[in-house]
């Protein structure tokens, strides 16, 4: 009989950061192995080192083909790209070598998913400067996925439990983000959110649309983007049978979603959505200097394949120290498994 658990390609991110550690710690979790078949895409030598440093009850198995893995408790199956020179590698360092390695992990996972060799992908954190040093001119994972899959209409969804936001724009300047608030783009993002929530078994998604300006423009007093672009987009979506409402003042709509009135908020730019999500999911203790919780995931909507990511960075100050919290990686794997049909 075939294994009903979805097979997930999990990229370890920039190997100089906490990506290898949170990947290994997540795969050591019994719940994860019961839910899916986790395949780490990275460097086997680094993963063996992490298992030893963190004293994890795992045995590393290297494979050339995802189908060859033994996805049982206690096994860490690694698709070994062998693209990190042990003599040159250093944790907690921005380097072209590790930037290129992280890019290769991502593109390999994408290609495996497009070929049907894995059911979905989960990505560990990468470093934008390291990518650029390696000659990979991408703002982040989302843009790599869109380019590799030939996807034109896509957006980012952040989720922390039932708290979800999607973005009209992400990695652009604030001035450019304002220019991107157009009727066509807002409508596309509303549609993407609607279809994504339907895929998550929400039959009639309730979509709130945030305004761009303070007080959602106050009837044009603080800007006309709501009148000229956002309201027409909402009316277009409603004409298609989508349960979209707004625009709402950005400073009050998020508590209403958290209280259960809506399933998602369409946000107009990066920080409008990221700040409330991370305020909810991240818990930092100043006295110890530790993150006690790092929850929340990043899902790319509009792709032909499943992609879910952790919602935090590489944390170069913690690489290889056995202090990284795997909470966001655990949540990302759970989300991806559900999107791939796990129950």
Q: How would you characterize this protein structure?
A:
With 343 residues, the protein is α/β, with parallel strands linked by helices. The protein folds into two domains: 182 residues, Isopropylmalate Dehydrogenase, CATH 3.40.718; 123 residues, Isopropylmalate Dehydrogenase. Helices cover 37% and strands 20% of the residues. It contains twelve helices and 14 strands. Helix 9 links the parallel strand 8 and strand 9. Helix 8 packs across helix 9. The mean pLDDT is 93.
Poorly predicted sequence stretches spanning 5 or more consecutive residues:
none
- What gross morphology would you assign? globular
CATH architecture of the largest domain: 3-Layer(aba) Sandwich
CATH topology of the largest domain: Isopropylmalate Dehydrogenase
Give the mean pLDDT: 93
The CATH superfamily of the largest domain is known as Isopropylmalate Dehydrogenase
CATH domain class name of the largest domain: Alpha Beta
For the largest beta sheet, what order do the strands appear in spatially?
Answer: 3-4-2-1-5-14-13-6-7-10-8-9
Strand content: 15-25%
Structural class: alpha/beta
* Order of SSEs: EHHEHEEHEHHEEHHEHEHEHEEEEH
Based on CA atoms alone, the radius of gyration comes out at 20 Å
Domain module count = 2
User: Whole-Å distance between the termini?
Assistant: 18 Å
What is the helix content?
A: 25-40%
User: Counting H and I runs of at least 4 residues, what is the number of helices?
Assistant: 12
SS elements, strand count: 14
Q: Biggest sheet: strands, sense, closure?
A: 12 strands, mixed
């Amino acid at each position: 009989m075939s294994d009903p658990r979805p097979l997930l390609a999990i990229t370890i991110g920039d190997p100089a950061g906490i990506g290898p550690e949170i990947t290994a710690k997540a795969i050591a979790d019994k719940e994860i192995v019961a839910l899916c078949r986790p395949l780490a895409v990275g460097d086997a030598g680094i993963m063996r080192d992490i298992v030893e440093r963190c004293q994890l009850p795992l045995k590393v198995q290297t494979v050339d083909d995802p189908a060859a893995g033994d996805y049982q408790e206690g096994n860490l199956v690694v698709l070994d790209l062998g693209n990190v020179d042990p003599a040159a590698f250093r944790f907690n360092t921005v380097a072209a070598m590790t930037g290129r390695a992280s890019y290769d992990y991502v593109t390999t996972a994408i290609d495996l998913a497009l070929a049907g060799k894995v059911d979905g992908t989960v990505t560990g954190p990468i470093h934008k400067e390291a990518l650029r040093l390696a000659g990979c001119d991408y703002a982040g994972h989302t843009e790599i996925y869109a380019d590799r899959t030939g996807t034109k209409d896509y957006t980012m969804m952040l989720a922390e439990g039932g708290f979800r936001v999607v973005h009209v724009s992400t990695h652009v300047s604030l001035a450019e983000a304002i220019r991107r608030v157009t009727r066509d783009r807002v409508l596309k993002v509303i549609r993407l959110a609607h279809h994504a929530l339907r895929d998550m078994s929400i039959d009639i998604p309730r979509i709130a649309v945030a305004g761009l300006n303070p007080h959602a423009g106050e009837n044009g007093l603080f800007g006309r983007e709501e009148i000229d672009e956002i309201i027409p987009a909402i009316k277009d979506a409603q004409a298609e049978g989508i349960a979209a409402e707004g625009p709402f003042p950005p400073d009050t709509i998020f508590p209403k979603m958290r209280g259960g009135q809506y399933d998602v908020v369409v946000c107009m730019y990066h920080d409008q959505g990221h700040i409330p999500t991370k305020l909810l999911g991240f818990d930092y203790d100043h006295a110890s200097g530790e993150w006690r919780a790092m929850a929340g995931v990043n899902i790319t909507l509009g792709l032909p394949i499943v992609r879910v990511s952790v919602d935090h960075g590489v944390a170069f100050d913690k690489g290889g120290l056995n202090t990284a919290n795997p909470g966001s990686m655990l949540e990302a794997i759970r989300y991806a498994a559900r999107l791939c049909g796990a129950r």
